[in-house]
């Protein structure tokens, strides 16, 4: 395993703004922990771990699309579809915390910024789109695949613009904001397409073979009727 | 499948830092990094002091310096951003070797480089002296919600499951005469990523059910661990206290 990815490092955004985002991230994650308690059952606990492991693996794929700005897959949309928004946000945050502590990827004081962008903004954008699109598109593996693709592209771009907002509030140097915004958006549209393809194939396969594992389809699931005679 | 007790950045040594309780190490690194980031970038002497402190910790941990430096190169992609800053920044400019550089950008580049490097070194020292399991136990003792430690435990366990299954599928492809070169390997990965996920899930589900049937309740049982003694808190407090002292001294003398 070669750790190459890099999130926001220490010192890119100044102390006060970093602190504000730590408070923001902690508050949102507290809500997620509270909501997730209800979701985390025998089926979701191992799934949450696997989704986190999967995200950990895909975040190692790092794209150097433009000099100086690199990006990577985020995996928030995949998490939303398979484990729901609350556990999903916790999965992405767990990945970020472990990367920060063990692999020195992303600064420890920038953890609030990184969690806000990738775990909260990215996951929230992905969730809103998935919740809407699942109702519009056919509830089969193809419809879900298309949903995953569109939601991934949008959520990755939204997350990248989170950095632009934080940089505007507390950047330690003067770079022109439109330039950063454009570079980040351009890079992350390409990354979003890559991420969308991975998320779409994964989700479509899971929906085809084990539809019971797809959180996004939960509300449309028919009540299970067990035919006892057929089993006997 | 007996792997998964160490991670690639762990260095198995019998150093003094390896024996410290994990929660005090996490707290020390966190506080040290906060002090570093809060230091104004123009206090150049303070950053030298921090580097000396980390050198002392490296010696106490018996981590070889080349080992540490090699792993610190993961910072490089971000340093690239720092290199652009003096050229792209605004404000007053200086001429150096015929190049027009922005002073603001130079300070910014130094800021990112110095703070980033110190943070990466501190995290690497934590990783080198703490196993994954100890790290989770440490987070648990620092009252991190159990949902987090539970997800983290499974994540670390399943990374090996994923890697093992990916390896098996690759061997299966090779043994069926599939041997593409270079970029064409991506096709097999793209086609197989869904089934890799499902296979790993079903393997992971069995691991989970086996754990539950052996009495797992969402917390790792503490086998040999003991809570940090007051003396350990004192020892590890040396790093953040010393760095805070340097920061204050630099601010007063300046």
Automatic annotation (TrEMBL), chain A:
Q: Does the keyword Electron transport apply?
A: no
Classification via InterPro entries? CbiM/NikMN
What is the protein's name according to its record? Cobalamin biosynthesis protein CbiM
Q: How does it sit in the membrane?
A: Multi-pass membrane protein
Q: Could you list this entry's UniProt keywords, alphabetically sorted.
A: Cell membrane, Membrane, Transmembrane, Transmembrane helix, Transport
Family matches, as Pfam families: CbiM (PF01891)
Report the locations given in the UniProt record: Cell membrane
- Where do transmembrane segments lie in this chain? 12-36, 48-66, 78-104, 110-130, 142-165, 185-207
Main location (coarse class)? membrane
User: Does the record's keyword annotation contain Translocase?
Assistant: no
Automatic annotation (TrEMBL), chain B:
What kind of membrane protein is this, topologically?
Multi-pass membrane protein
Q: What organism does the UniProt record list as the source?
A: Actinoplanes palleronii
The answer to whether keyword Transmembrane applies is yes
Q: Which UniProt keywords apply?
A: Cell membrane, Membrane, Transmembrane, Transmembrane helix
Superkingdom of this protein's organism: Bacteria
Which Pfam families does the protein's record reference? CbiQ
Q: Where in the cell is it found?
A: Cell membrane
Does the keyword section mention Cell membrane?
Answer: yes
Transmembrane region(s): 20-38, 44-65, 72-89, 109-130, 233-253
| Protein's name according to its UniProt entry | Cobalt ECF transporter T component CbiQ
């Amino acid at each position: 395993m070669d750790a190459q990815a890099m999130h926001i490092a220490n010192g890119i955004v100044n102390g006060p703004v970093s602190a504000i985002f730590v408070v923001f991230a902690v508050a949102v994650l507290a809500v997620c922990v509270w909501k997730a308690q209800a979701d985390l059952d025998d089926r979701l606990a191992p799934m949450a771990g696997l989704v986190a492991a999967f995200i950990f693996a895909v975040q190692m794929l790092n794209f150097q699309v433009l000099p100086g700005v690199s990006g990577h897959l985020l995996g928030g949309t995949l998490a939303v579809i398979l484990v729901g928004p609350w556990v999903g946000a916790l999965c992405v945050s767990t990945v970020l915390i472990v990367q920060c502590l063990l692999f020195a990827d992303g600064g420890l004081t920038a953890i609030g910024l990184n969690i806000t962008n990738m775990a909260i903004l990215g996951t929230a954008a992905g969730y809103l789109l998935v919740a809407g699109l699942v109702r519009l598109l056919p509830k089969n593996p193809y419809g879900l695949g298309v949903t995953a693709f569109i939601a991934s592209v949008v959520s990755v771009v939204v997350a990248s613009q989170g950095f632009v907002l934080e940089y505007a509030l507390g950047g330690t140097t003067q770079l022109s904001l439109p330039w950063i915004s454009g570079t980040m958006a351009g890079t992350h549209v390409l990354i979003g397409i890559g991420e969308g393809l991975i998320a779409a194939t994964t989700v479509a396969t899971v929906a085809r073979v084990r539809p019971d594992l797809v959180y996004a389809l939960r509300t449309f699931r028919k009540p299970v009727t067990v035919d006892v005679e057929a089993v006997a | 499948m007996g792997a998964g007790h160490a991670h690639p950045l762990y260095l198995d040594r019998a150093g003094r830092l390896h024996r410290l309780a994990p929660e005090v190490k996490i707290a020390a690194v966190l506080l040290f990094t906060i002090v570093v980031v809060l230091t104004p970038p123009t206090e150049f002497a303070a950053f030298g002091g921090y580097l000396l402190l980390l050198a002392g910790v490296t010696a106490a941990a018996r981590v070889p310096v080349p080992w540490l430096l090699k792993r610190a190169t993961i910072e490089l992609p971000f340093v690239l951003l720092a290199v652009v800053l003096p050229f792209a920044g605004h404000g007053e400019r200086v001429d150096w070797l015929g190049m027009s550089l922005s002073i603001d950008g130079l300070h910014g580049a130094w800021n990112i480089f110095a703070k980033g490097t110190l943070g990466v070194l501190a995290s690497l020292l934590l990783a080198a002296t703490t196993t994954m399991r100890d790290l989770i136990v440490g987070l648990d003792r620092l009252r991190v919600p159990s949902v987090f430690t539970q997800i983290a435990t499974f994540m670390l366990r399943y990374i090996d499951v994923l890697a093992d299954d990916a390896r098996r599928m690759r061997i299966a492809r090779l043994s069926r005469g599939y041997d593409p070169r270079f970029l064409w390997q991506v096709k097999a990965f793209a086609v197989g990523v869904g089934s890799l996920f499902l296979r790993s899930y079903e393997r992971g589900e069995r691991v989970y059910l086996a754990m539950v049937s052996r009495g797992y309740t969402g917390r790792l049982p503490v086998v040999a661990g003991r809570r940090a003694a007051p003396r350990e808190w004192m020892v590890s407090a040396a790093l953040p206290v010393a760095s805070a002292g340097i920061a204050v001294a630099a601010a007063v003398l300046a």
